[in-house]
Amino acid sequence: MGPQLIVMLTHNDMTVPDAEQIFEECRGTRAAWFGFKEKPLPREDMARLCARMKACGKKTALEVVAYTEAEGLAGARLAAECGFDLLMGTMFFEKIAGFCREANLAYFPFVGKVTGRPSVLEGGIDGMVQEARGCLARGAAGIDLLGYRYTGDADLLIRRMAAEAGGPVCIAGSVNSLERLSLIREAGAQFFTIGSAFFAGCFGGSVAEQIDKVCAFMEDGKMEGRA
C-alpha cells in the first residue's frame, strides 16, 4: 500500500461551508480518511459531520492551524469532544501530547517555523528532522509536515523527513499535481492531505472522481483519466 490520502474538506485552510454535502457525494470513494479544519464550522456541525464520517466507516482527522499552547490545547479538546481519531497541526507542547494520550487521540504536530493562514513553513531541514524525532520521542504519533508550503527545497525536505524522522509523516498543504504525488509516493511518506486542489479540479473531474484517481495512483502509479 502506498501513502494514504486524507481528504480535507477545506479550501485555503478553512473548512468549506458545504462540507457535509461534499462528504455525502464522496463517502463511497476509496479514501479511508476524511477531515477538515477547526474553522469556521460551529462545534455542533463539526461533531455531526465527524460522527457521520465514522458511521460510514471512515477514519477522521481535525487539523488545527494554531501556534500557541493555549490555542492548540483548545483544538485538541475540540477534536476529542467531536470524536476525531487524529489531531493534526498545532506546535508540539507536552500538555497537548498528554491530553491526546489520555483522550486516545493520535497527535501529528507541525514542525519548523509555521506562520499565517494559509500556513507557510520556514526553517532548516536538519533542524526540522531533529525536531520531528524529538516530537515522536515525547509522545507524538506522527508529524504534520507542510512540505509544499516550505520556502526552501520542498522535495528534499519531504524525502529526508520521510526517511529520517523515525515515525509516520503526513505531507500536508498544496499537494496539487501529479509530480508532487509522485515525489510523495517515491519518498515513502505514510500519509498526505489534499483539500484545495480537489476543489480547484487539479486532477480532473468531480471531487469524488479526483479522490479515486489519486487513491489509484498512489497504489499503482497510474493516473487514469487525468485531465
Written account of the structure:
- It is a single chain.
- The chain is an alpha/beta fold.
- It has one domain: Aldolase class I (TIM Barrel), CATH 3.20.20.
- 43% of the residues lie in helices and 21% in strands.
- The protein has nine helices and twelve strands.
- It has an eight-stranded parallel sheet with strand order 7-6-5-4-1-12-11-10.
- α7 (178-187) links the parallel β11 (169-171) and β12 (191-194).
- α5 runs parallel beside α6 and α6 (154-164) packs parallel to α7 (178-187).
- The chain is globular.
- It starts with a strand and ends in a 7-residue tail after the last helix.
Quaternary organization: single chain
What CATH calls the topology is TIM Barrel
* Number of strand segments: 12
Averaging pLDDT over every residue, what do you get?
A: 96
Largest sheet: 8 strands, parallel
Question: What CATH architecture label applies?
Answer: Alpha-Beta Barrel
| Inertia-based shape | globular
* CATH evolutionary superfamily: Aldolase class I
CATH class: Alpha Beta
Ends distance: 25 Å
Secondary-structure element order, N to C: EEEHEHEHEHEEEHEHEHEHH
Q: Determine the fraction of residues in helical runs and give it as a percent range.
A: 40-55%
Number of DSSP helical runs: 9
Strand proportion, as a percent range, falls in: 15-25%
How many separate structural domains? Answer: 1
Q: Strand order of the main beta sheet, please?
A: 7-6-5-4-1-12-11-10
